Amino acid sequence: MQHVDNNNDYVALGAVLKRGKAEPINIMKLVLTENKKAPMIDLLEETEGYVKNLFENIPDNLIYHQLSHTIEVVEAARTIGQAIHLSPEEMQILLLSAWFHDTGYLKTYLHHEEESIHIARQFFNSINANSKLIEQIAGCINATKVPQKPKTKIEEAVCDADMFHLAQDNFCDKSKLLFEEMNATSKFKMDMIAFRKGSVEFFDSHHYHSKYGKEVLSIGKKRNRKHLIELIG
Questions:
Q1: What are φ and ψ of residue 188, in 5° steps?
Q2: What is the DSSP string of 6-46?
Q3: Is 94 a domain residue?
Q4: Are 158 and 101 within 8 A, CB to CB?
């Protein structure tokens, strides 16, 4: 099934609802430039390959923000997007944004979102993607900057996907990797107790944005916050 938006900007790929059940679909995407001429490519496949290639040259200090984290965020984005019934076009923007959202860490740790946007722009301009798509992706990546301030439901979904781990059963394992990464990156070292206290503060300042985040992820997040308090003692 293909869906073309009202402006005929692009044919989307992402997910559809089939007989009441959300199922992912892959559709060959036509990336149209402003003059409506561009080759037929599978944009998600091209993006996945490009980002995976970038992560082949990962700095040693990136213990948490590795390719595995990006893949997990992409899958979390797919889960959220299907749950909130995003259209194929919206799902496409969401997944493309998720693939690029942390690529900036490969160049800089602070203000990595700006670098992620720069990397995404370079890639999509190189394949002559239309400007509307590029700006929507840039907006999604920028929205993940803490404190998160999403303005659209797609931005809400990518923000919640980036913080999906706060609600997961393996949160403590992921948290330890982030602790190691922060100590490997910063000249100011911290012990685990201080890190956990900081994590509780972050939990309290953060909130999910999408309907799925508020109704589903918040439950797991509350459970993990309680466990953090117990670990601090």
A1: -95, 110
A2: TT--BB--EEEEETTEEEEE---EEB--TTS---EE-HHHH
A3: yes
A4: yes
Separation in Å, CA 200 to CA 62, 110, 166, 194, 219: 23, 22, 11, 10, 15
Instruction: For residue 196, give the amino acid letter.
Output: R
Cα angle value 157/145/133 (rounded, 5°): 55
pLDDT at 51 over 80: yes
| Res. 27: pLDDT tops 90 | no
In a domain, 109, yes or no: yes
At residue 201 the predicted structure's pLDDT band, cuts being 50, 70 and 90, is very high
Q: Which residue range forms the structural domain that includes residue 172?
A: 14-232
Number of domains comprising the chain: 1
CA-wise closest residue to 9 among 27, 36, 41: 36
Domain at 163, CATH number: 1.10.3210.10
How many whole angstroms separate alpha carbon 23 and alpha carbon 15?
A: 6
State how far the Cα of 10 lies from the Cα of 31, in Å rounded to an integer: 6
Residue 62, pLDDT above cutoff 70? yes
Contacts of 72 (CB under 8 A, 6+ apart): 164, 165
Other Cβ atoms less than 10 A from the Cβ of 193: the count is 11
